[in-house]
Every structure is written in C-alpha cells, then in structure tokens.
Structure prediction request, 945 residues.
Amino acid sequence: MADIVIRAVRKTFDRGRVTAVDSVDLTVADGELFVLLGPSGCGKTTLLRMIAGLEAADRGTIMIGDREVTTLPPRKRDLAMVFQNYAVFPHLTVEQNIAFGLRMKGDAGATEIKEKVRQAAELVDLGGLLGRRPAQLSGGQQQRVAVARALAVSPAVLLMDEPLSNLDALLRLKFRSDLKRIVHELGTTVIYVTHDQVEALSLADRMAVMREGRIVQAGPPLEVYDHPASTFVGGFLGSPPMNFLPVAIDGAVSPGPRSPDAACPDDGPRAMVGPRGDSFPAPEAMRGWCGRELLAGIRGENMDVLSERAPGAVAGKVLVVEPLGAQTLVTVASEDTEVKVLTAPGYTAPPGRDVWLRPAPDKVRWYDPDSGAELTSP
Amino acid sequence: MRRAVLRYTGAALLAAWVLFPMYLLTIGAFSVQSAIYHYPRDILPSLSWGTMRFFLDSQGVPTALGRSVIVAAITAAASAALGIPAGYALARYRFRGRDAYRVTIVSTRAFPVVVLSIPLAVFALQWGSYDTVWAVAFMHTALTLPFVVLISSSVLTAVPADLEEAAQVFGCSRPAAFARVTLPLAIPGLAAAGGFALLMSYNEVFAASVLTLERPTLPAFVLNALTSSPEPYKYAAAWLLMVPTFVFIFFIRRYILGVGRAR
Amino acid sequence: MASVSAPASQRRPVTPSARPRARHRGWTPYLLLAPSVAFLAVFFIAPLVQGIELAFTSTSGQYGLATFHSMLNDPGFLSALTDTLIMLAIVLPVQLVLAMAMALLVSSRPKGSGFWLYVYMLPLGVSELTSGIVWYSVFTQQGWLNSILTSLGVIHAPVIWLSYSNSLLIIATIVVAEAWRSTSIIVIILVGGLDAIPREYLEAADVFYASPWRKFWHVTLPLLRPALRTALILRTVLAFEVFATVIALAGGSLSVLATKANNAYTQFQEPHLAAAYGVLIMALSVLATAIFLAGLPVREERLP
Ligand SMILES: Nc1ncnc2c1ncn2[C@@H]1O[C@H](COP(=O)(O)OP(=O)(O)OP(=O)(O)O)[C@@H](O)[C@H]1O
Ligand SMILES: [Mg+2]
Prediction:
C-alpha cells in the first residue's frame, strides 16, 4: 500500500522571495499513474523533489502509505526517481548505474541483481550497452539508463520528471505503452511530470494541471480535457488549445448584472457572436446568464467548417490552412478572435475565403470572462 | 536536528584546532615578558606591546620586512603577467599541446625548491645578482606560476566564452572583447591569483635563505636568528609573519578554490 | 492532435556531453603561453639541469658519483632519509582525514560555512617557520602543553617532548605542526573538487537508498578523485621540502633531507652535496608523483 497524500505543502526559495509550490493538496491512490502537467517553472519538479525528500517543505505534510515522511531522508522513503537531467553517474557503467539502487538497498544477491538489471535494461532497449559509460551515450540513451535505474529497484513509488523528453518520437510511443503496462503490472504508484500533452492524456489514470505553484485542476484525463475548470486549463491542455469566443447570452449586449426582467427567448437561450447577429444555441442551464457577456470555450475538433451560412453557425474568414496528416488545422478569424479548427484531411481553402463555423452545442463550455472560471448555472 | 548539532560541533572543534595555536602565539607575542618565563604559563596573561616593539626596533627587522614586501610584490606582478595569459589560453582555446602544457605546469611542483634554488644561487653568484630581491622574487615566481596559471584558468573558464563571442559579433576585436567583457568580470579572481602568489612568496623560507646573505627577507632573517634569539622575540617574529596574511586570505578566499577546480 | 514537447533549452542534462570545442589552429594560444614557457625555461629548466649537473660533479669538477658517495657516507644520511619517510607516512593520512572532514563540513553548506572555510584556510598564510615557532612554544619544556597539563594536574613535572634522544617523539611534534599548517592546501583543493561535483549525483544517491557513508564511498569519492590526486601529489612534494619547521622544533637534534641540503649549502658551503640532496628529494618526489598518477588513474570520460 503506497498511496501518496500531500497536505498544504508549500516551498519558497531565496528567503521567501520565490514561491515555487504554494499550498498544494494532492492525493494519489495506490497503484495509480498520476500525471502532473503545467507550464515551465510552475513548480512540478519542486513538488516532486519534496515528495522524494530532496527538498524540505516549508509547511505541510507528505504521507506515503501509512507513514508520514515529511522529514525522512530520501533513502528511507522507499521510492525511486527519474531525474529531469538524468543524473546518471559518470564514473559507473550502464550496468553499474542500473544496479546502483539494488546494491545500496542491499537485500538482493549478486545473481538476482544481475537478473534485475538485465530485465530493466531490456525494457528500455539498452541490452547491448551495459558495459558502456555515460560519456559514450547519447542524451536519449542516458535518459533510458535513468529510467532503467529507477525501474530496477521495483519501488513502491516511482517519481518521473519528464523521463521521455529526449527520446525520438518512435521510441517515445513505444515506451509510453510499455511503461503503462509495466507499472500497472507491478502496482507501482507513479507521479509522472511531462510537458507533452499526448503523453499526459494517454498515460494518466488521473492528472493534475499546475499553475504558479498551485494545482488548478485534477481529475481523470478525459474529464480534464472535456471540462477544463478554467480558461487557463483549456488554453494549456490540448493542441490546438481550446478556443474562447466572446459571446453574449440572448443578444442583450450590455455588461454588468443581469436585469431581473431580461428574458431569454422561449425557444431557449442563444449565444450571440458579434454585432451581426450570428448565434448558436446554448443549453437551457445558461438561461440564468441571460444578458451577460461570457466566453464560450470550444475545442477545435468540436466545430464544423461550412462553406455556406447555416443556422447555428458563426461567420469568419480563413487565415491559414495547415495540413497535419490525420487532420487539417484551419485558422479562422471570427470578429476579433482567431479560432483554430480541426477538420478532415484534404480540406483546402484559400486565405480570405468566407466560412461559417458550427460548434457542436453539447461540447461548448462556458467561462466567466473576468475570472476565467467555468460556469455551469448561476 | 541531531545531525545539525553534530555538524556544528565538528566544525567548531576543527576550527578550534586551527585557531587555538594561533591564539597561543598571539599571547606569546603580546604578554608581558615575565609571563613567558613563568611556569606554568598562564592562558590569560596580562598583555603589553613591549615584545613587539622590541622586535620591530631590532637591528635589521624593518628592512627585512620591507624586502619581504618588495619580493612578494614583484612575485605577484611577475607571476600574474606571465600566468594570466597562459590561464586565458587554457580556458579559451583547444590546441595541440594544451594537455602537455597543463601537465608540465602542474608537475613543475614535483621538482622541489631545494633542487632549484641551490643552482640558482650559484648562477646568481656568477652574475652578481646574489643577495638581491630580484633573485629571490624570480625564484618565487617560478614556484608560484603554476598556481597562478591554474587559478586564473579556472576564473576565466567561469566567464562564459559566449559573452566574449557576443562582444566580437558586435564589433570588438578579440583583445578588446577580453578587455571590455571578460576582464571586468574576472578581475577579482585574477587579482586573487596574484594575491595567492604574494602569500606564498611572503611565507617562503628555503629559497629566501639560500639566495640571500646580508639582505634576507623577513622569514630568512628570522630563520638565521632563530637559535640565538630569546623566545618572545621568536613569537613576535612569527606573529608578524602570520597575521597580515589573514587579511589577504579574506579577500582571496573564494578564488583560491580554483586550485582544486582546475583539472 | 500534434504532440507538443518542451523546447530544448528547458533541459539541462548534467551528464557528460564530452564535446570539446573545435581545435584551434592559429598561433594565438602559443603566443599566450610563450612568456610563461620562456620564464620557466630560464628559472626552472636551467637551474634544474644545473642542479643535476652539480650533483653529478665532484668538488674538483669531475663528472661522476663522488658526491653521492659522500652523501651516502654522511653519518646522518640514513636517519635523515628514514625520518623523512616516517614523517611523510604519518602526516599524509592524518592530513587527508582532517582535510576531508573539513571539506565535507564546509561543502554540506551549513549556516556560516563561509566562515568555517575561512578559518580552515587561515593556515595557508602560516609559513613553515611560523608553524615551527608556534609548536615549539607548545612543546618546549616550559611550553604551553606542559603548562596546561600541569595546571590540570595531569602531570607533576614537565615532560620533555623535544628530547634529543627520542626522535619518534620529535617526529610526532613535526607531524602535528605540519598537520596544523599544511592541511589547508588540501582543504581548498578538496572543497574546489567537491563544488565541482553536480549536486544531482549526490541527490540520485540519496534517492537510491545510499546511506551517507555509502554515498561518500560510492559517489563522492570516485568523482572527487582528480582533486584528491592533485592534493596528494602536491602535499607529498611539499612534505619533502619541509625544513624550517624541523629546524625550529628540533634544532640540530633531528634532520630531514631538506635540512641536510640547506645545511650543506649554508653551513658547509658545499653546493655539490646540497645539490645531491636536492636530486634525491626530486627523485623521491617524482617517484611519489608517478605512484599517485598510476595508482589513481583519472579518466576524463568518467567525470562529469
Ligand atoms: N533552488 C532554487 N532556487 C531558487 N528558485 C528555484 C529553485 N528551484 C526552483 N526554483 C524556482 O521555483 C519555480 C519552480 O521551479 P520548478 O523547477 O519546480 O519548475 P518546473 O515546473 O519543474 O519547470 P520545468 O517544466 O521547466 O522543469 C521556478 O520559478 C524556479 O525558478
Ligand atoms: Mg522541472
């Protein structure tokens, strides 16, 4: 049993001038593969280092399993880590590096160590390089040594700080699925830091998005993807990021508190875009926001690009068309907003062509333009 | 918590090991004469300037001190002038013979001052430069040069070559880029390299005693007078040799570590 | 959806890149080295050659081993040699342990580590002579050690530490003096070496179950090897040259090779004999250096 429970953990640097992690609460269940995602400098590595015991938390508690480990040294926490910058020992061979944790733990015999090293090396395709030293390896190979070193000790908790960042796309794809299978087989609890959105979505049992030292949303990956809790999450997660169209519910384009008698049409509330009166239907739950300006969050794959005016579609002009292989990314200017839409491969249109964008009504999310928070009903 | 206490205790004990003998020397040099000859000696004696004044007024001491300072200054200047360009070459260029030079310069220290200073004394006698500050200073320069090269190379390596290259891109010649960009950043460290040479020279005894006769540096002077002088006199001499260097070490303390960083 | 990965600048691998800058083909580096090379040729190579020549000629000017014969027949020679070696064999390990303790304490960066480092460095400014005088004041019959022991009631009559007849005891006092004075050069080399070890390696050892002691043994020490080797070589060479400390502590009652050389020159005006002692010291220094170089090989590719 090694769930991880983090309560109100905080870490500052430079005598409090830099807040790296700001009051984080987080629970990772036993055997869960938990992904941390967030922009550079948001505190992911710092959080991981506190869990590992390499950095002392200013405040808060960290529990692993039933033990409070907040002040324990790293070696007593029974975990392993893949460092962001590898930290593969230069004076040891690949084999000795992978065996390092097992040797230090001291509860395995020489043959057992050899066998475990071989297995771990196999997993990351390093079989033929066991005798080499890190200086003779490429960056990606060194990174794989770091991964193998961590897997070899079969820890209860595995912390991985961008462990695949330096691998080529093909290897990354392979390891991603291998890793997922292995850690689930072993029942290892994993916290996995990445910048790679695909990696995050594909690996995670649950994930969290961090921003400026705080966790802004946590949940199963598809839930986070489908229901970003804020414009920040929607804009950070997904490629292209979620589009945010300024709209007014019901067409009464007047900011401020809704006048009590402003009524939405009987055939349901609508989101009005721009002065020309283009609009698309809004769910019944939005009736309470009539008369307010909001942001409609729509993912690029949840819009159709039409070449003619249609009900529930918003006018725009094509700016760029970028074929991505499996899809085509079209950038459209609608009013003052750039909207990125994913459409079928083979779509072409010259820049400047008039198009109409039709959102799938049930896929639209609604956000407060000031706070950026998701709105459901008032 | 317990480890922190342990660590401080250890650090303090080691510091006491270093400092306590210095304290003993200080009270030896500054206690009233009678206290030194009293047995058992008192760890907290009454103090006086008498011994120090007596020492400073003795025949030959002020001039020896002056010569020591001059020798040290020449040594520092010469080894900086010779060593910093070499340090720069090691820090900035990869060239054939670089490693050979580095090994040679380090291994010069494997040849003891004993084997060098005696023939040098013989040379000096032949050339009529025996018993001059120059002979001693140049001998000292040969001894300190390796350290100056190592320290300045480590100091200059720490200034990113990119900065200098950026300056060259923006129109500086290589020397101008060095003077305008690298030098201002490296000057404290380079000064420290010279300071280290100064320190070593001020303290050196063997070469100074072999290369001088009538005009010794202070350490050589004290060494010659060692057997014939009373104890308080020795303490005053030793104290005077030691304490000025502490100020120096304070200013160069961060850069001295370069000796260990350079490979 | 396209995958978005971090820009390369966000990753700073600490592991070796081992990519030296392109070899330079101009004259500039050689011009920069020229002054130091020229100087060393005059003030290092020339006296070195001259010194060797002096040692291998007799007073009458003939080449041969006559000077070495008279050196070997010098009654004090053998004891000077053995005393030098005994002194070295004791002082080196003592210093190494002391210096390692100091360096590790400083580089673990407790509060005030700058102050501790400064204190441990102070003996750099202490000359051999000063050190000899300081410890003479401690070990002399009416000195500090006896005074303190008497005041504490440990002894009743002063102990003669610097006894003419007990050379081992005198060597012990020389070892103490040397350990006090010259440990600092090892400390600075080791601190510099420790600073150069990227913190990540030590952290990786921490995470992978290494106890502090095993971390030191399996990670710190191997990565510290170049600095350790430099320190050992430098210290050994300098220990062969110790001379004023010996004179201050032992007077005439004990000699080491360096005091023999100095005496031969300054007292007996025998430059040939002095040079022969110098050559012997040099041979021993070179031998020790060679042993350290071979025994502690440093491979660039095994370092960060
Ligand atoms: N030792 C330190 N001293 C001072 N500031 C630090 C230190 N370590 C981290 N920080 C700061 O704390 C913040 C969080 O850093 P952290 O390394 O945790 O970010 P990250 O999310 O891992 O970023 P990246 O994705 O680039 O790796 C940053 O602003 C960083 O500058
Ligand atoms: Mg990071």
Q: What stands out?
A: Residues A 44-45, 84, 161 surround magnesium ion (ligand 2) (CB under 6 Å).
